[in-house]
Amino acid sequence: MTVSAPRRSSVQRRSSQRHSGRRRPSTRRSVLFIGTTLLAAVAGIAFFAPLWWSFVNSLRPGSETFRYLNPLQWQTFFTLTPTLDNYTALLDTDLSRAILNSLIVSVVTVLAGLAVCATAAFGLSAFRFRGQGLLFSVVILTFLIPFDAIAIPLSDMFRDWNLQNTFVGLILPGIGNGMAIFLLRTFFLAIPEELVEAARLDGLGWWGVFTRIYLPLSRPALIGAGLMLFLFQWQAYVWPLLMGTDREHILGPVALSNLQGQFQVDYGVLFAASMVLVLIPLIIILSFQRYFIQSVTTSGMK
Q1: Backbone phi, then psi, for 203, in 5-degree steps?
Q2: Is residue 73 in a domain?
Q3: CA–CA gap between residue 204 and residue 213 (Å, rounded)
Q4: In angstroms, how far is the first alpha carbon of the chain from the final one?
Q5: What's the whole-model pTM score?
Q6: Read out DSSP for 17-28?
Q7: Domain ranges, residue 281
C-alpha cells in the first residue's frame, strides 16, 4: 500500500497535466471567438449607425434633423413621432422618374454587359494566342483607372456622336467592365479542360462550348459580375451628370443632388430620397448574396 500511493499520485498528476493542457487551447479558442465576435459587432454597428440615423431622420421633419446631435442622446437614433410626409413629398419631385430611368439603364447595362464581358472572358481563357497576356493586362488596367478621370474627355466624344441625353449614351460606358471580365475569366479557368476536350471531340463548336458548358457552370460568377455592373451603373454620378441633362434622361443620383436648393435644404426629404435609392440595391444584393459570395470564394479554384 505504501508503494502504490506514490504511483497513483504520479498518475493523477500526469492526467491532470493532460487535462490542463487540453483546457488551455479550448480557453484560448473561446477568448479568440468572443474577441472576434465583439470586434465584428462593433464594426457592424459602426457601419450601420449612419444608415440608421439617416432612416430615422427621413421619418421626422427636416427642422429636427440636427436637433439631437449635440449632445448625443437616445432621440438621436430614435423618434417617437414618425411621419411619412417626407416620402409623400418625393412624389412632387423628379425622383420617381429618375429612379425608373436608373432601373432601365442599370438592367440594360447588366444584360448587355454580361454578354460582352462573358464573351471577352471566354476568349481570354479558352484560347491561346500571341499577345494574350498584354491584352489581359490592358483589361486589368481599365478597372485600375478611376472612371471619373476619363469621364470629361469621353463625354466630349459622345457629344460629337450626338449621344448626349440618350439612354444609349448613358449605358455604353458601363457595358465593358474590366473587373467583371477579370472575375469571369478567373472562374472560367477553373473549368476542367478535359470537359472542353470531350465536348470538342463530340463535335461541339466553340460557341456551343461557351453556351452549353461555360455559362451553365458559371452561374454564380455571372450573378456576381451582374451585381458589379448594376452597382457601377446605379451609383454613378459624374457620367449621368454630364450626359443626362434633361428631365427625360435624369438618373437617381443626379435627381438626389437636385433636391438641395441654393439657399435652403429640406434634409428630411433629402434623407427620404437617399433611403429610397439605398433600399433598391440593398434588396437586390441581399437576394443574391449567396451567389455573390460563392462566385468570389470559388474563383480560381481547380
Answers
A1: 95, 15
A2: no
A3: 10
A4: 65
A5: 0.81
A6: HHHHHHHHHHHH
A7: 85-298
